[in-house]
Design brief:
The complex is a heterodimer of chains A (322) and B (98). With 322 residues, chain A is mainly β. Chain A has 1 helix and 30 strands. Chain B is elongated. Classes of the chains: A mainly beta (322), B alpha+beta (98).
Chain lengths: 322, 98
Amino acid sequence: MTTYKEVIGTAVTNIAGNSPTTVNGDIWYNSSDTTFNFNTIVTAAWATGGNYPTGTQELAGAGTQTAALAFGGENPGEDQTDKTFEYNGSAWTAGGDLSTARRLLSGCGTQTAGLAFGGVVGGSRQDSTEEYGGTSWTAGGAMGDGRENMAAAGIQTAALAIAGDSGPKKQTEEYNGSSWTSGGNLGTARYFLAGAGTQTSALAFGGQPPTNGLNNTEEYNGSSWTTGGNLGTARTQLAGCGLQTAAVAFGGTQGSGSNATELYNGTSWTASAAMGTARRLLAGAGIQGGAIAIAGDTQGTGVTTATEEFAAGAVTAIIATT
Amino acid sequence: MTKTNQYCVAENWGKGFIEHSESRKIAFSGLPGNIWQVPAHNKDANLWINKVLGTVKTRDEAQTIVDVEVTAAQTAWDALSDEEKSRNPRPADIILEE
């Protein structure tokens, strides 16, 4: 029988486990489980999803790429809207209306257990919270103070409200499903930032001031914030989702709507595939491997209905058993 | 000068307008006025323009469409209150590359 070495001119590397490299086409023999392995690398990419029913900016999102929730915001017909829409991976349908129409609000949780808090009605900053049960919103506990442009992390019964605007804030608040209590202060006061993770393992990144955007990242452990790796592209009015050790940042602005996407691994950010539609003041939801970008403002043509779905890159080992 | 990019006008209809498989082969950039920038002299980009029934524009034609939209956005920003201006960066000019 012809050997691999005779054909290719080199022997297959023998490794006890997975290959330490991520090179497309790498072949190795895993002596631990006696399998031949072949790396196939798929690059990260965005694709268009079903368009949001109405061009909207300053809205909030929750859930996953195939079961997302978006609510509130501002559109050409309403200074602030109470509309909620549910996404099934291909199309948006109407959900229950918020009790309080608002924009620049924050949200987290899932499609069937979402949370909305803060925001603005007219010129008045809101401290109210609403909980979504899959069909309708009900009142939750009020925040300690009214604010807008916060970041959010967590779930309906364990949420985190991060910084925001009533002047740039450092304060965070933690929600337990019925009431908010104070959490640790950020190192850098800011608003129009993005967040990811859980109440006890959160991430905050980007934002302003200045109006052309911050690049710094901070990590939360449930009681205090520490400095993380800087974004490669400083920006404000961006979106984010995922976990503290596997987050994704996308969109935002430095004057022009941004299509930049970056991935966080718990230490540093790396650039990834760009979105098709650059935008700011969008909503985001999902995980690093399956994020969704919802509507926003293009800073050129106004609000957009564009939805985009992110698929992270992957290294797939094709296994042939000996 | 060798052309790097080509432009078309196409309306994003949503799901299926850009597939992950296309996005892995082509660098897409959506611009104001439903302008899409994709690589020039690229078979996959040409196929995508055909798929979305895009109307091909020269760089100058696309620039004119983008400029109209950006100027309108800048005019709207200029009319904002000082407080709103302090919270939102002024829309920047977008210069398309050949």
